[in-house]
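Example S7 (structure tokens).
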């Protein structure tokens, strides 16, 4: 049953309202002034508040404004119950409350208004939950639970603006699983999905709370690393690469029995190429998938043998489509880790 808070400084009216509501099986808590009411809202989170207007120290209007200024309490509906019955009072009250009842009140009318307010509250709660679910679906990759490309792009714009404003560095790392098609072709798509989920877990485990990790599509993943220099981005990418190399994805037969695990890094089969970018100035410069040449570090990692991290510094001049000036420390896209012979060039 709904929890109702009655706020009324007159003890007799307070008790009468509480009694009227309890007869209808509502749970009722009672406050005698505004401050006590705010504390009870904090402690008990009522579903509806019946609020007197004229009270000592803190008026009902002040209580309503205080609640509506806080995101955690702004959604709690309020019915003013007051002796102030002038039209201006009711208009002002309805600016802050869902309903307005004049004293002396008739019990059936008060109860009818309470039911109506609770119905509205229920609909608003359902709408809020639906919106949250839709928002979650719109920003989440269903298979891995990571953010999706749409959210990654939006977040990258935000982080680039923030980095520009505060003069911070920002790193973006793009990961592409090596020869992932072979996993699907050999063991089937369900096992391929398990590999993608396992890699998503690796990314989650290696990232900080301020990072954004996403599945960009297929077997391509991205990580946005705020306030991170190239060395930090490469260290992150290297940790992901090594962890993935050591990863063994359990394989299941139809009977559910476990067979030998899928090790996508065994016998020279390298699994994770990492392109690490650092960009000082412009989001679009590092947005994967939007520009010709965008994958060059990933492709470079692939063509130089896979299972490696390649770093590239992008400068502002590249944003404008001009030839990039050499970065004083990192003049060209460069292979960070060339331990393999590069003899296999399929992805
Ligand atoms: Mg009063």
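Recovered sequence:
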């Amino acid at each position: 049953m709904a929890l109702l808070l009655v706020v009324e400084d007159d003890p007799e009216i307070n008790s009468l309202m509480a009694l009227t509501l309890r007869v209808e099986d509502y749970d009722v808590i009672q406050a005698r002034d505004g401050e006590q009411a705010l504390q009870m809202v904090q402690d008990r989170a009522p579903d509806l508040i019946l609020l007197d207007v004229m009270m000592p120290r803190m008026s009902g209007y002040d209580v309503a404004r205080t609640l509506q200024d806080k995101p955690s309490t702004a959604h709690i509906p309020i019915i003013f119950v007051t002796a102030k019955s002038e039209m201006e009072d009711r208009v002002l009250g309805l600016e802050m409350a869902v309903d307005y009842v004049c004293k002396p009140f008739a019990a059936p009318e008060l109860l009818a208004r309470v039911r109506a307010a609770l119905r509205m509250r229920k609909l608003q709660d359902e709408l809020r939950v639906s919106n949250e679910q839709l928002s979650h679906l719109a920003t989440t990759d269903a298979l891995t639970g990571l953010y999706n490309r749409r959210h990654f792009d939006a977040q990258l714009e935000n982080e680039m603006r923030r980095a520009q404003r505060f003069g911070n560095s920002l790193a973006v790392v793009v990961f592409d699983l090596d020869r992932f098609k072979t996993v699907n072709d050999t063991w089937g798509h369900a096992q391929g999905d398990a590999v993608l989920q396992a890699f998503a877990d690796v990314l989650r485990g290696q990232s900080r709370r301020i990072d954004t990790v996403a599945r960009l599509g297929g077997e391509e993943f991205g990580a946005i690393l705020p306030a991170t220099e190239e060395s930090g981005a490469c260290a992150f990418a290297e940790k992901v690469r090594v962890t993935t190399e050591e990863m063994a994805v359990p394989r299941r037969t139809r009977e559910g029995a476990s067979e030998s695990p899928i090790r996508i890094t065994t016998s020279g089969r390298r699994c994770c190429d990492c392109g690490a970018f650092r960009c000082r100035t412009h989001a679009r410069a590092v947005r994967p998938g939007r520009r010709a040449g965008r994958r060059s570090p990933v492709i470079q990692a692939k063509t130089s043998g896979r299972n490696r991290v390649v770093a590239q510094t992008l400068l502002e001049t590249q944003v404008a489509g001009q030839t990039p000036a050499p970065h004083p420390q990192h003049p060209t896209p460069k292979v960070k880790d060339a331990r393999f012979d590069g003899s296999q060039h399929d992805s």
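Notes on this example. Residues 9-10, 52, 54-55 surround magnesium ion (CB under 6 Å).
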